[in-house]
Each structure stands twice: as C-alpha cells, then as structure tokens.
Specification:
Associates with stalled 50S ribosomal subunits. Binds to RqcH, 23S rRNA and the P-site tRNA. Does not require RqcH for association with 50S subunits. It comes from Cohnella abietis. GO terms for molecular function: ribosomal large subunit binding; rRNA binding; tRNA binding. The chain is an alpha+beta fold. Helix content is about 15%, strand content about 30%. A five-stranded antiparallel beta sheet has the order 2-1-3-4-5. A hairpin with a 2-residue loop joins β1 and β2. α1 packs across α2. The chain is globular, with a radius of gyration of 14 Å.
C-alpha cells in the first residue's frame, strides 16, 4: 500500500492530498529514512510523522484498503509521541 493512502486510511492524516504534501515536505520517515508519498509500506514498518511541534512514531500492524473509524485502532501501534520545545525568542515576542 502507498504511504499516502495508509496515512489517510489509518486517519493519522485526514486527507490523502494533505498526506502527500506532508510526505513531499520530508516530514514523514519510514524506518528512519525520508519517504515519498508513493513509497510502499508493509506490516512491521515504523513511521515517524512530524505534526507541527510534535512527532508521532507508530508501527504498522495491519493494512486494509478502506476502514471505518471504529476499526482504525488495529492498523497501527503508537510507539512514541514527542513534543518539541519551541525555541526561545531572544526578543521576548
């Protein structure tokens, strides 16, 4: 399955076009390497997705072409969630 489609089906990202844009910006790592939207993902892969000031690390558990909202919990396991600290503003703004 394509990376952008998995991000949408798993509801990590709401829209496939947004998932494509995020991947194109280099904010998604697949097994520690920058991934393009068309990269194929498989069960056991580890994704690092950067959302603004936080990074979510998940492991893919199951792949499916479509899913209901209630069934998304089994698609991945959250391994780590980190919040990055904002850099100090030297001007106090």
């Amino acid at each position: 399955m394509r990376l952008d489609k998995f991000l949408k089906v798993s509801r990590l990202i709401k829209r496939r076009t947004v998932a494509k844009d995020v991947s194109d910006q280099g904010r998604v790592l697949l097994n520690g390497k920058e991934a393009k939207p068309s990269t194929t993902v498989k069960i056991g892969d580890v994704l690092d997705v950067q959302f603004g000031q936080r990074t979510l690390t998940v492991q893919i558990e199951r792949l499916t072409e479509s899913t209901r909202k209630e069934d998304t919990l089994g698609l991945y396991t959250v391994l780590k969630e980190e919040a990055r600290k904002r850099e100090e503003d030297p001007f106090g703004l």
